[in-house]
Amino acid sequence: MEEPTTFERHVYKNASVYHYMKISLDLENGKRSFSDAQFKQLIISALKELYGEVGAAFPFDLLKFDPSSLKAILRVYNKGLVKLWSALTLLGSYQNEACAFRVIQVSPFLLALSGNSRELQLGESLTS
Amino acid sequence: MSPELEKCPRSLLVCEKSNFMNEKSRHDIHVSKHSFNYKISVLIPECAVLPANISGVISNFSPYYLVRDLPVYELLQEKYYETVLQKGTVYAVSYNTKIDEDNSIALLPRGQLVLSLNKDAYEQLGLEGRPSLYNHRKAMRYVVTLNLSDKTLAPGTKRYQRVLSGLKDRLPLRYDFLFTEYNTGGDEDKSLYKLLSQYKPVEHKAVLSHHTLKNLPCPTLYPSDLKGTTLSCDPHSFLEWLGAVNLDISCENAADSFLSTYICPEPKSSVSQALLCTITGFISPEDVYLLLQELRKYFDEPKFTPWLSLTVHGFMDSPVSWGATEHGFLKGGENFYNLVCFKNQDYWLHMATGAHDGCPP
Q1: What is the value of ipTM here, to two decimals?
Q2: What is the CA radius of gyration of chain B?
Q3: Which one of A5, A95, B37, B114 is separated from A54 by 20 to 30 angstroms, measured CA to CA?
Q4: What is the average per-residue pLDDT within B44-56?
């Protein structure tokens, strides 16, 4: 039988190497079909447009992509968060069609993206 | 490139390990102090069906009520006062108010009313408060804390009249509220509903959903190695993997894949099946504690898995996180904790907060 463990406590500040973003793409003329590779390529082109080839040369992961709702979860190194977020914000069009990225949630913990209380909808609010 | 572009908001992760049987274990305090719980997620590796005792506890969770357009001064009326203070298990939080934009209000058990107000509301209300700990250069947010159990705030006192007139006349705040109270199964349990009946509360039950995951790569965890230096993976990788499981993210990608390079942290093994169960709503800490007790009993009989995980997410917009520690929303309002329960009753507790939060206890 294993001995019960001794007490330990550690506090980590800014120890997460990555940030995670839950985003969605709004298109002016409604939905169109995107593959996950096309979606990632769109984000890369937004980065290159704003920061150039060298500035955009950092990796990020498209952890999940839902083609029906055009929602995605991205993972980026902390150093690249501001660049990625700003590039997503400033992308205005795709193939001559107006579009906008909406950043739904950002967190240094991927687990936090699965529990967003702002999604709790209990019918129409009268005081909004 | 400017170094400013590489900065990130601050985050904190507190990791503790101990044993549930240890007298000095503080797991019960940590659970009880996290008052506002929005979502619970349970992951049990090598399990296909939700055990009956656990689903029984979940179905007995206290309901919560949505009350539309409740004037805040009502919470000071004597009838609420007595019920709330007597019971000590009533929780309330304003619904659909964003703490980084609007005013946000919460009622803690034993009658502590916390109002997180923007500058205009604070000045108009005229009550004593303090500037938020998370103001930038100018104070744009203030926190007013009213301890309703304090003798100086008893009905009839000057201070009580001042507070009441502030909330009734100077700044008549009205919000939608979520209320819950821990039900002990007695006759007095419907008293909250009767109290709120004037405002037509709508009862809701926490929503349970569960499904079985197949062929899941799963990190191997050893209770003695919390930091992940030798036998287990580090806490951040473990929490990242838990997030991936909850969000249905693939953990098996090639290192040269264009889309994603995310993989399950090492050391790992593959489990043939795992149960993922989520409960969403407004859940009292007492109900969370009951669920934890039942999950600990899962290991009373021999099981294939050496551990299971319980994650509890707080409300992004509540003015407090643990106890009365101020909570805010900068780029995110995360305040969650995760308990890994091992079969020998050891546990790991990870508590995570974002930039506008105090350090978890």
Answers
A1: 0.92
A2: 22
A3: A95
A4: 94
